[in-house]
Amino acid sequence: MVRGAGAAAALIVTWEHSSPSVSAAATARHPLCFTGARVVAAKSTTNGSRRQGWRPGTSTGETGPVLGYFGPAGTFTHQALRTVTQEEALAFASVREALDAVRAGVIRGAVVPIENSVEGGVSATLDELIASSPLAIRGEIVIPVEFGLYARPGTRLEDVRQVLTHGHAAAQCREWLVTQLPAAAVTEAGSTAGAAAEVARPGSRYDAAVCARVAGQLYELDELAYQIEDNPGAVTRFVEVGPAGSVPERTGADKTTLVAFMRADHSGALLEILEQFAVRGVNLTRIESRPTKTTLGSYCFSIDAEGHVQDKRVGEALEGLHRVCPTVHFLGSYPRADGGRPSIAVGFSDEEFDAAAAWVDGLFGG
């Protein structure tokens, strides 16, 4: 149990490591579907080993080339998926299982979260993208993170004493909860959608759930308040991940994602990596370190860069990384969700790269 200080002292957070269960009756009343799409929950065989999260042949959804996503239904990831397809989709209990299903060929791709404007990068996704055989990002989706308070029909705001939600949602709505529900205890669930499912269950000890509107609608709950997040304008970025292979054609408004490993821990090691982009006029939109999981102090760098691998400046930057890094994981070039085009400085356009190469060729008496 964690208590805040000062004005926040009234907000009580109780940590529960397992998600509340949903009864069979509640499941029958609230089928896992949204906007006409059938969602099939993929069966897991996770038993603690590194790569046994998914076993082919255990889901009715495998009869066709469907997409998967980090579930359950009613989450922001589900909402992002709906912008990609309205067809049947497989919900997975973890990012690892979703990406392993892509590797196994069970699904043609998976939608998973990768970055939040408040919480930063999603570690599970960043690590799992390079944990086994290569995968490729084919596109990105950015959606606003807007939370509401949802309760069983007939519940009033002043009646709420027990709130259930995911830990990240509780953190992002902390000020509102302290101000509007000072006497309420907030309990952490495995997901905001799972919290909504539990609150919808008749006889649940929880009065309300903090979740996305899609989850409140999915479980037929009443909306007691909306847009209760402390950071209006917050967004989460999701990526559609598929098998490594062909790269989408460049659009002029693209992004490239990669992971670069340092050759050795020494002064200027990170600078060597950054210089490959800087000297070619490539702007980075994200860079963060991740442990290599080998020894203490050993890190790799997950990077998003403006541009497409077919752009001369980006392609040459990757060539430079290949020279100075022992390992570079290219995770794809794909259209940007915001359609933003990079500002290319003088000297860094494809035409200028071609002209420079032609000039060098001419030095040999062409």
From TrEMBL:
Any GO MF annotation of the entry: prephenate dehydratase activity
A cellular component term, taken from the record's GO annotations: cytoplasm
Organism: Tessaracoccus defluvii
NCBIfam families for this protein: PRK11898.1
SUPFAM superfamilies reported in the protein's UniProt record: ACT-like, Periplasmic binding protein-like II
Catalytic activity, EC: 4.2.1.51
Highest taxon above the source species: Bacteria
Catalytic activity: prephenate + H(+) = 3-phenylpyruvate + CO2 + H2O
Matching PROSITE patterns: ACT, PREPHENATE_DEHYDR_1, PREPHENATE_DEHYDR_2, PREPHENATE_DEHYDR_3
Residue span(s) of domain Prephenate dehydratase: 66-243
Boundaries of every ACT domain copy: 258-336
Lineage: Bacteria, Bacillati, Actinomycetota, Actinomycetes, Propionibacteriales
Protein name listed in UniProt: Prephenate dehydratase
Positions of the UniProt region annotated as Disordered: 45-64
Cited Pfam families: ACT, PDT
Main enzyme class: lyase
Gene symbol of the encoding locus: pheA
Keywords: Amino-acid biosynthesis, Aromatic amino acid biosynthesis, Lyase, Phenylalanine biosynthesis
CDD domains: ACT_CM-PDT, PBP2_Aa-PDT_like
GO BP terms: L-phenylalanine biosynthetic process
Pathway: Amino-acid biosynthesis; L-phenylalanine biosynthesis; phenylpyruvate from prephenate: step 1/1
